[in-house]
């Protein structure tokens, strides 16, 4: 009887200890990753004067918290437009990326084409060409397409850095799709294209989601291209808008800056997390052949 | 001037932004209509579009006024005007893109980074407009040509420059028995004594715009000449430059803390507003913002146009000029706009709270807008007599510009402050400058 | 023809065998191979065209720039061969920037790898709140870089730094004004470490997720088998886990390296290369010389400098990885 009473307690004690160790191990990571975010959130609802009090606690409020920074963001700047622009840009960039990277990834994965390997490497190399040089010839392209100062210019330009990575990613995904499925479809009468559309794509939807997530992330990081091609306030994406209109020389609207960043970054993180499981299996497939 | 008082009593928690907006707007509305009525633009520009790209002014109220002015000017002349603002440090990238694209804005602005010398082949020759303005308003300052002329022709029209005076704390100086500082030695002495009391000073030793300006002010006051007046020959390798470096080192050791190595353009503003700074060398935007963020400190803050050095008194200004792309589809309207802004200089200066210093001699008639009515800022009305620009005494040529954008001067001062030997630093710095000038000569 | 090879349709030639001797010789463009090639290249075409036109051509243009005396304003420039590259080598700051770039990329990369791996291991364990933790960890990566870096600027501020405030309250450093008050972006080594830290802060969540993917893909049977065989954790780690996650690690690092090498934002917004070049990296030097200073040819040469070094390295890496079969 005594041993029966001991066992559950030991198991539970072990579980508690394990949890404690894990949380302890996670603490530094959480602190490093999350503490700045927490600080940014506090700053977003702090009053300006409160920020400059040298002896005040940065993590709490000396003066009452306020929604004024958010208010300023939406009423005194075109932040609403910027968010819409960013979402639309990312959407269209994802579309273009999928339309080009899916067939390319499939071709490189499945069809043993001569020169495919070198092409794969070549695709990768495009990242070595820095944007600070590329933006000049691209400015010519943008103006030829008459897209200057429109966010559509960015829709044209951003795929240059999303397509290579997503091609590689999707290539990995497609390689993990068992060939039997395609074969079965072809036996049923599809040609290869039909097999691709009807069988391979539906099965690789985690890969497609991953590619979309990356397109979104990479699109939201850009600053230089948007600076070079868009100067009209209402056409700007969030990063450009926030960085150019919430800083005037020596005045940084810290509260609104942080608010602007969080409003766009946190929802995206939440959405990412929802897809994270799929995302993880996606990268695995891509890397292991 | 009683304009700013009513705004301030509205509420105790007035933010900097609303203060500056209110004041500028109130002043502007009074005479805008009158001034606009004074000049009719030619009919040929009716029904056209005009696109402007200018910087984000450090005094937000000015941009409010400017956008309003542009709209009203457009309405009056039948021109659809669109104004875009981006921070001045990002303008060069944008211009490179526009030039490569062969399309973009009609009227543009060089703010601080003067690219006239680089783009002049692609800019409309504005000599007639500039000469006209010179005749109308008592002639241009000599320094105006530096930013706008190439080979004797005007490829840009100067708008205004920003002066960077000394802002000092009367109460702190008094506490060590000092009055208004007159020389760099005074500033050094004050900083040295006040640092011990917890009130050091600070000037940026970093890669920022202010560093380029502040150290050149010291240099010019020590008699350093970057080039000869033609701008072709480098004359910076001199005894005076060594003296300036030595002085900077001493001033750093005695009166500053290591935090100045990480400062950016806004850090000294914050330093003043936090109450710590005994003095700073900064544009009056710091003055205005301190008024809102720390009224107690503001009360004790006073302005000196510049302090003297062994080589004289020179203040480094940051020029802003207009230019028109050759590929613009609306050159006449752009020219008319430049004329319009110049004609409304008084309102512009008022709206900028005295920040915009004119390039035209006639516009220095006292009392000047805003400055003439502010007891503390009144002395800035004579600023043009002591203003020099980057590259002094040479013009702002492309190599001079590259020396600026690669922060060679701030780096030289940083090395010395960190304990580097003056001779080594001179060898490095002058070597770099020579290399840049040689590169530009070759092409 | 019962052999099903994973990864491709049956090899050509087998078709004619199956049909028999009565096969007619098809013209080469109608053979299955040719059809496959046609199909394949057609599928590849959009991506190749898009990237080729918008990156490849501009790249060639930038090579031309790097070998001419172009400035931002000259439409036609003189060809000067490798002069710009040579002139870069004459510039003392270039060596500083090169050194900093290497230190930055390698250092940050190693840190991201280490931190990412540890975090991935932790996240592998089942525990309550794992989903929440994962979501929180992602946020540094999803915030637009321009703005999160500005946040760090304020956090590193010489007067108002929240980090210093915290450290000072904890008694680890003195108060503001004392000699041990760190000036994160002002002291030479500290400045470079600070910008590296921001890069790591942004990047290690991503590394962790990538590695997590790799670790979860190790089939548990393999691990169990190793456990049964009596292998210790370290042995298991080295002999089983590392080889399995190595491809992911390498590819992830490769992309990350490439992204870091051309990233301008962090340094530009925090220190712009200062003080005195202690955080100067090739992208900022190229930008300040080429774009803001107008000397486009020399700026292009600086930014393309690493290309000839990286190209063979990348080719080698990718070729090696492809050879491995798992």
Keyphrases for this structure?
heterotrimer, A: 289 residues, mainly alpha, MetI-like fold, 2 domains, two-stranded antiparallel ribbon, C: 326 residues, flat
Radius of gyration of chain B: 22 Å
Note poorly predicted spans of chain C.
Answer: 1-7, 13-22
Total separate domains of chain B: 2
Largest interface, C-beta closer than 8 angstroms, per-chain residues = A-C, 111 and 107 residues
Shape of chain C: flat
Taking strands numbered 1, 2, ... along the chain, how are they ordered across the largest sheet of chain B? 2-1-3-11-6-12
Shape of chain B: globular
Structural class of chain B: alpha/beta
**What is the overall pLDDT average of chain C?**
78
**Fraction of residues of chain C in helices?**
55-70%
Q: Which range does the strand content of chain B fall in?
A: 5-15%
Fold and architecture overview:
The complex is a heterotrimer of chains A (289), B (443) and C (326). Chain A is an all-alpha fold and 289 residues long. Chain A has two domains: 2-66, no CATH class; 77-287, MetI-like (MetI-like fold, Orthogonal Bundle). Helices cover 76% and strands 1% of the residues of chain A. Chain A has helices spanning 2-44, 48-51, 68-75, 79-110, 116-125, 131-144, 152-157, 159-176, 179-187, 192-203, 205-221, 224-229, 238-245, 254-287; strands at residues 247-248, 251-252. Mean pLDDT of chain A is 80; it is low at 1-7 and 285-289. Chain B is built from 19 helices and 13 strands. In chain B, the strands form four sheets. In chain B, strands 2-1-3-11-6-12 form a six-stranded mixed beta sheet, with helices on both faces. Chain B has a three-stranded antiparallel beta sheet with strand order 8-7-9. Chain B has a two-stranded antiparallel sheet with strand order 4-5. The N and C termini of chain B lie far apart (54 Å). Mean pLDDT of chain B is 87; it is low at 1-31. Chain C has 326 residues and is mainly alpha-helical. Chain C has one domain: MetI-like (MetI-like fold, Orthogonal Bundle), CATH 1.10.3720.10. Chain C has 14 helices and no strands. The relative contact order of chain C is 0.11. The chains are: A mainly alpha (289), B alpha/beta (443), C mainly alpha (326). Chain A binds chain B through residues 47-49, 52, 54, 135-137, 139-140, 142-143, 148, 224, 227-229, 231-233, 244-245, 247-253, and chain B through 13, 15-17, 53, 56-58, 60, 63, 82, 84-88, 90, 93-94, 96-98, 100-105, 265-266, 269-270, 273-274, 276, 285-286, 289, 293-294.
């Amino acid at each position: 009887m005594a041993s029966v009473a001991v066992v559950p307690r030991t198991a539970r004690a072990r579980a508690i200890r394990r949890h404690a160790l894990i949380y302890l191990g996670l603490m530094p990571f959480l602190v490093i990753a999350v503490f700045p975010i927490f600080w940014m959130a506090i700053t977003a609802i702090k009053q300006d004067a409160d920020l400059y009090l040298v002896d005040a606690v940065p993590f709490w409020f000396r003066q009452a918290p306020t929604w004024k920074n958010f208010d300023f963001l939406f009423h005194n700047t075109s932040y609403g437009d910027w968010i819409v622009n960013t979402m639309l840009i990312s959407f269209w960039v994802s579309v273009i990326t999928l339309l080009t990277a899916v067939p390319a990834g499939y071709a490189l994965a499945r069809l043993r084409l001569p020169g495919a390997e070198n092409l794969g490497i070549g695709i990768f190399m495009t990242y070595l060409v820095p944007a600070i040089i590329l933006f000049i010839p691209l400015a010519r392209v943008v103006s030829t397409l008459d897209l200057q100062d429109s966010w559509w210019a960015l829709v044209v330009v951003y795929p240059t850095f999303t397509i290579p990575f997503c091609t590689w990613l999707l290539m990995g995904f497609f390689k993990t799709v068992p060939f039997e499925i395609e074969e079965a479809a072809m036996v049923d009468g599809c040609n290869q294209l039909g097999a691709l559309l009807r069988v391979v794509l539906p099965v690789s939807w985690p890969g497609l989601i991953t590619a979309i997530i990356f397109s979104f992330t990479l699109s939201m990081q850009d600053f230089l291209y948007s600076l070079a091609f868009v100067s009209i306030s209402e056409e700007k994406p969030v990063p450009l808008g926030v960085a150019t209109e919430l800083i005037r020389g020596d005045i940084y609207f810290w509260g609104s800056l942080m608010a602007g960043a969080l409003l766009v970054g946190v929802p995206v993180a939440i959405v990412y997390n929802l897809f994270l499981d799929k995302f993880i299996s996606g990268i695995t497939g891509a890397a292991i052949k | 001037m009683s304009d700013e008082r009513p705004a301030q009593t509205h509420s105790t928690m007035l933010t900097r932004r609303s203060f500056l907006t209110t004041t500028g707007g109130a002043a502007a509305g009074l005479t805008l209509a009158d001034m606009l009525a004074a000049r009719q633009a030619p009919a040929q520009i009716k029904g056209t579009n005009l696109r402007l790209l200018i910087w984000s002014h450090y005094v937000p109220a000015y941009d409010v006024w400017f956008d309003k002015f542009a709209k009203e000017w457009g309405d009056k002349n039948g021109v659809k005007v669109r104004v875009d603002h981006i921070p001045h440090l990002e303008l060069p990238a944008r211009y490179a893109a526009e030039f490569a694209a062969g399309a973009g804005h009609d009227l543009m602005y060089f703010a601080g980074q003067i690219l006239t010398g680089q783009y002049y082949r692609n800019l409309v020759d504005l000599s007639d407009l500039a000469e006209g303005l010179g005749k109308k308003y008592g002639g241009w300052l000599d320094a105006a040509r530096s930013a706008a002329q190439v080979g004797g022709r005007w490829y840009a029209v100067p708008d205004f420059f920003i002066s960077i005076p000394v802002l000092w704390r009367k109460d702190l100086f008094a506490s060590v028995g000092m009055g208004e500082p007159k020389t760099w030695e005074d500033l050094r002495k004050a900083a040295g004594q006040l640092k011990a009391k917890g009130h050091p000073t600070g000037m940026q030793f970093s890669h920022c715009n202010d560093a380029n300006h502040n150290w050149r002010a010291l240099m010019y006051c020590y008699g350093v000449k970057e080039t000869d007046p033609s701008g072709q020959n480098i004359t910076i390798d001199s005894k005076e430059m060594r003296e300036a470096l030595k002085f900077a080192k001493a001033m750093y050791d005695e009166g500053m803390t290591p935090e100045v190595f990480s400062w950016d353009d806004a850090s000294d503003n914050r330093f003043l507003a936090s109450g710590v700074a005994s003095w700073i060398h900064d544009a009056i935007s710091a003055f205005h913002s301190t008024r809102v963020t720390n009224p107690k400190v503001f009360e004790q803050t006073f302005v000196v146009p510049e302090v003297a050095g062994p080589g004289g008194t020179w203040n480094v200004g940051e020029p802003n000029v207009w230019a028109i792309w050759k590929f613009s589809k609306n050159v006449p309207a752009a020219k008319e706009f430049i004329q319009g802004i110049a004609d409304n200089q008084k309102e512009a200066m008022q709206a900028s709270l005295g920040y915009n210093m004119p390039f035209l001699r006639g516009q220095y008639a006292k009392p000047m807008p805003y400055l003439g009515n502010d007891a503390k800022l009144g002395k800035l009305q004579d600023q043009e007599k002591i203003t020099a620009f980057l590259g002094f005494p040479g013009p702002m040529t492309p190599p001079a510009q590259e020396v600026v954008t690669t922060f060679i001067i701030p780096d030289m001062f940083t090395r010395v402050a960190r304990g580097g030997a003056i001779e080594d630093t001179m060898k490095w710095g002058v070597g770099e400058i020579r290399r840049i000038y040689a590169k530009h000569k070759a092409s | 023809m019962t052999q099903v090879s994973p990864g491709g349709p049956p090899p050509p030639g087998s078709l004619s065998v199956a049909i028999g001797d009565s096969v007619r010789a098809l013209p080469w463009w109608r053979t299955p191979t040719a059809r496959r090639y046609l199909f394949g290249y057609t599928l590849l075409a959009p991506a190749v065209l898009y990237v080729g036109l918008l990156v490849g051509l501009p790249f060639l243009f930038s090579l031309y720039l790097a070998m001419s005396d172009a400035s931002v304003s000259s439409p036609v420039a003189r060809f000067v061969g490798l002069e710009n590259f040579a002139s870069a080598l004459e510039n003392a700051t270039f060596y500083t920037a090169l050194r900093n770039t290497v230190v930055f990329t390698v250092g940050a990369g190693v840190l991201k790898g280490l931190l990412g791996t540890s975090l991935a291991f932790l996240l592998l364990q089942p525990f309550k709140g794992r989903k929440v933790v994962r979501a929180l960890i992602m946020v540094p990566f999803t915030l637009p870089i321009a703005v999160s870096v500005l946040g760090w600027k304020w956090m590193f501020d010489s007067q108002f730094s929240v980090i210093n405030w915290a450290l000072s309250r904890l008694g680890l450093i003195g108060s503001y004004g004392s000699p041990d008050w760190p000036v994160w972006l002002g002291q030479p080594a500290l400045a470079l470490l600070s910008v590296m830290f921001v890069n790591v802060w942004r990047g290690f969540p991503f590394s962790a997720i990538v590695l997590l993917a790799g670790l979860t893909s190790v089939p548990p049977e393999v691990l169990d088998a190793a456990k049964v065989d009596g292998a210790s954790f370290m042995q298991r780690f080295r002999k089983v886990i590392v080889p399995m996650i190595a491809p992911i690690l390498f590819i992830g690092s490769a992309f990350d390296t490439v992204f870091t090498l051309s990233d301008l934002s962090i340094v530009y917004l925090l220190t712009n290369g200062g003080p005195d070049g202690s955080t100067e990296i090739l992208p900022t030097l190229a930008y300040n010389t080429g774009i803001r200073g107008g000397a486009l040819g020399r700026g292009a040469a600086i930014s393309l400098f690493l290309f000839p070094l990286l190209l063979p390295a990348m080719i080698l890496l990718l070729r090696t990885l492809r050879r491995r079969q798992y």
